Structure formats: structure tokens, C-alpha cells
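Hi there,

I know you've been waiting on this one. I reran it after we fixed the sequence typo, so this is the corrected version. Both the input and the resulting structure follow.
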Amino acid sequence: MIKLHKFSIIGIIVIMSTVGLVAGCKNGGEQNPGQSNLASQNQIKEVSAAGEKEESGAKVIAYYFYTNFRCKSCYTIEQYTKEAIESNFKDELSSGKLVFKTVNIEEKENEHFLGDYQLYTKSVVLSLVRDGEEIKFKNLKKVWELLRNKDEFYKYIEEETRKLLEEKKREKEQ
């Protein structure tokens, strides 16, 4: 009876630890020691050769928001998002119509994003900006669901980014 009780307690501890690790990733997680934290080396990294300049003053910003502690899934979301943006939108990036930024929301100057976009975990957010004012944004919440399917993840990022770029084009025409 005592042995059974000990195994039950050990089993509960193992289950709670596993749940904590999975939940911890979405709520902060642990930094993966095998990968460098590229985003923390450059507080805000832009992938646009033209920077943020564009004649019309309108652009789409693709943000990846992260925290100090990151798990393998967090790094994967950043990598997949960056790759999907860079491979599908070379012209838009070079012209400044699209900008990719990684932002640490635990840095004092970036804390406002938590409230601005109602962030509760690492997130990809697309923002349509005209003359420095945000017109519209979309939090791409499905990135966590699609994390295990690289092709579907890329497709999702591409489709949502195209939608906002099309809206940017319509904004310019008006």
C-alpha cells in the first residue's frame, strides 16, 4: 500500500512538471541554451533594406513579440515567420512597404505593446501603419496551432500578410 502511494505521488509530480513545461513555453518558458537569442542581440531588428521609408507613408509591419525566456517553440515561430516573410515578400521588404521587427516586450520601452495588442504570450502581429498611425492590426494567433506544420505555417503568414498589403494598397488609392 505504501509503495503504491509513493508511485502515485511521483506520477502526479511528473504529470504536473510536464504540464508546467508545456504551459511555461507559452507563458514565458525557458531559454533554449542550444540556440542564441538573436532578437535580444538586436533589440529591434529590421529585415527591410529600405528601412521604414516609403513614398505614400503607408506600410505593413510584421512583429514577432518575445520575452527574455524562450523555448524551442518560441525560436521556431520567430524563424518560420522571418523565413516566410523574407521568401515571399522580397520586393515589399526592399521597398519598405513591409518591415519585419522582433521586439522584446519585457523591455521598458516596449511594454506598451502588451496592452496595445492584448498580448499574453509570444505572438506574431501584423500592423497597417499610415503616416506613423496604426490603421489596423491582426494578431496571428494560429501560429501556435500551426507550429508543427511548417508549410501550413508559411502559408498562413503569407496569406495574412498579403491581405494586409492589399488593404494598404486600397488605403493608398483612397
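Quick highlight: Helices lie at 2-26, 38-41, 72-88, 90-95, 112-116, 150-173.

Best,
R. S.
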